[in-house]
Amino acid sequence: MDPIRHTVEDAETLIADGYFEAAAQRLDRAIARYGARPWLIGLRHKHRLDHVPTGQAAGPKSAGDTNYARLSTASAQPYQVQSLSDWPPFQPPLPPDVGAYYMFHDTIPDQPPQPARRLYRIPNATLSIDRTRGRLSGFYIFDEEGNYLPELSFGTTPFRLSSGIHNLHQPVGFIDDRFSKFNVCHLWFDKLPRIFELREGAPDLSQFLMTTDTSYTAEIMETLGLSLVGHSGFTGPEITLRMPELVISSNSVRTAHPAHQCYRHFARPVAALNTASPAPKTPARRIYIDRSAAATRRLINADAVWAVLQARGFEALRLEDLSFAEQRSAFANARAVVGVHGAGLANVIFCQSGTPVIEILPATYATRAFWYAAAYFGLTYRPLVAALSPDAAPVDYARFVQKRDQQNRADVYVDPAKLSAHLDRVLQVAD
Fold first, then answer.
1. Pairwise CA distance, residues 402 & 266, whole Å
2. Domains along the chain?
3. pLDDT digits (tens, 9 = 90+) for 98-143
4. How much is the pTM?
5. Which keywords are on file for this protein (predicted)?
6. Pairing state of beta strands 207-209 and 172-174?
7. Residue 252 contacts by C-beta under 8 Å, 6 or more apart in sequence?
């Protein structure tokens, strides 16, 4: 492969995963070696990879900007640190008949140890949120003297507005992370469990903050009797907030996807919700998660797949058309769930123990999140590996290397005969 193109692909992968500084360094090395090629310079400019050096004073983010305070880093630790209880590694059993599919074998036997979890409490803190990056909002934390705390922040362009600051009047728990675009999987698996993690060290905490807010999240928080800082009064792509105390967990910054570890607070939001407002009982149903309106991972032969499912009594649900309460009720009363890998499968956490979950795995892209969640909640996880196309050669998983940015969006093909046989085996056992 051309080395310039290889560099661009590597940098785009790092950017997609939120490693902006590493991407900038990769591009800088390539520029020094190959010169200021348009692809390299263009990618650096597109993603605003002009890193502000930590430990140095920083002026405005760009020429002409005036509404930014000067930045400096603290010379001493200006916050309290509490160690949080660790959790044993979670290793679910392998599902039957998974073959060589990479997700079930790649690094599973020897997962790297997770960093020790800590709780940080910053008095009279300031938090700035950069909402210009779309799904990867930057967040920057400052102490009461206005010093920047890079070890608790995420992003490459820290700032603190000098005017238009929003003042909050009680302690706030920050439960977000670098994946800021709304996604029900990250919400239930990563963000909401942090409420209980933060309250492990700060039990009186009742107000929480995310970089975005939605009616879906607000409905959940109201049911739990908790307050979420609303964004209705915030204008512009960059905001700065000041509060009497900010509480944040180390896994907001250092852990990519805590769901993959199923840590000890993972199930607590569901348990609290079931206690506060049990899901109503409705007739049991077999659910198929319809992704026809999605932009990625759609079924190439959707009509043929639906014919197989409909013949076995499945009901198609487009989750984007349902409220949170409707989604929860549907899955709480599900007899079986089928869906292509995607955020909608996060709803299986509401299913009753033993419910069959059939995740259709794209041939070259998936994560362990729903396998882990199904095992953690006592569900019967029976995945089915799809193909890239009707005539695609089988993937050689012994040599396979995942390139997330290239493979995440690909549509999938499911052999109807293979699906029929798989469903009949799973549903016969379940019934």
1. 27
2. 3-46 (no CATH), 80-262+271-276 (no CATH), 285-430 (3.40.50)
3. 888 888 875 444 444 566 788 999 999 999 998 876 666 789 999 9
4. 0.81
5. Glycoprotein, Glycosyltransferase, Transferase
6. parallel
7. 154, 174, 175, 176, 177, 194
